Amino acid sequence: MKITTPLKAVIFDLDGTLLDTLDDLTAAVNATLSQYHYPLKSREEVRCYLGHGVAWLVRKALPETIGEDIYQQCLIFFKEYYQRHLLIETKAYDGIESLLDELKRQQIPMAIVSNKIQSGVDGLRDQFFGKWIDVAIGNRPGLALKPAPDSVHLALSELGLKPSSDIVYVGDSETDVLTAKNALLPFIGVTWGFRTAEQLWKAQAELLIDEPKQLLSLIKKRVSTSS
């Protein structure tokens, strides 16, 4: 889907798009595995598990042979541990704050949509992006995870908008490509996150950028062209 101008809003994925959360997520995974005496995972292994929510992450990190009871115990442990340690190494990617500054200056509404649990999304939004982004949708009861479009549509509803070609979805994973498609939004993929450009092209992304200022340039160009 082609982007039309002027831009009406930007919807961002969180992990791997706005924030580098990989080290803290890896630490939480390995704290869980250590607690239950399972082999630890490398940073790159954890990277491959990300993008589908916490339940998927914990399930993939654990041995395939474990039972449901142990899985549920590990899931609870992971959630509690991560909530206490989600700000140790996590940081915004270089250039993100400048991008958000410019979007706010241009009065372009923004929202975060993530498969991370809602409390984690709220904590990270408040810590890093509170002065720019008010709407932040995470994993909550009764709301389907991405790539279902429900969370994106909820974010748009809270912004007072409906899906259109002048609203872009920005993300870093195959899940995000599908989410944008299902939500009927143009997709812009970022290559600084948890997936490579090759993986995103294979997932049928139509537009990729390598650093936040490229999105800024794209937005400036389109706004200038439309004015």
In short:
The chain is α/β, with parallel strands linked by helices and 227 residues long.
Question: Secondary-structure map with pairings?
Answer:
Elements lengths: L8 E4 L6 E2 L1 H14 L7 H7 L4 H8 L6 H17 L6 E2 L3 H10 L4 E8 H12 L5 E5 L10 H10 L7 E5 L2 H9 L4 E4 L6 H6 L5 E2 L2 H15 L1
Parallel strand pairs: 1-4, 1-6, 4-5, 6-7, 7-8
Antiparallel strand pairs: 2-3
Distance between the termini: 22 Å
Using DSSP, what is the number of strands? Answer: 8
Oligomer: single chain
Give the structural class. Answer: alpha/beta
Could you spell the SSE succession in H and E letters?
EEHHHHEHEHEHEHEHEH
Shape: globular
Just name the CATH architecture of the largest domain: 3-Layer(aba) Sandwich
CATH superfamily of the largest domain: HAD superfamily/HAD-like
Radius of gyration over alpha carbons? 17 Å
Class of the largest domain in CATH?
Alpha Beta
Strand content: 5-15%
Largest sheet: 6 strands, parallel
Number of domains: 2
Task: Report on this structure.
This protein has 227 residues and is an alpha/beta fold. The protein folds into 2 domains: 9-20 and 91-226, HAD superfamily/HAD-like (Rossmann fold, 3-Layer(aba) Sandwich); 22-84, DNA polymerase, domain 1, CATH 1.10.150. It has 10 helices and 8 strands. The strands form 2 sheets. The chain has a 6-stranded parallel sheet with strand order 5-4-1-6-7-8. Strands 2-3 form a two-stranded antiparallel ribbon. Strand 7, helix 9 and strand 8 form a beta-alpha-beta unit.
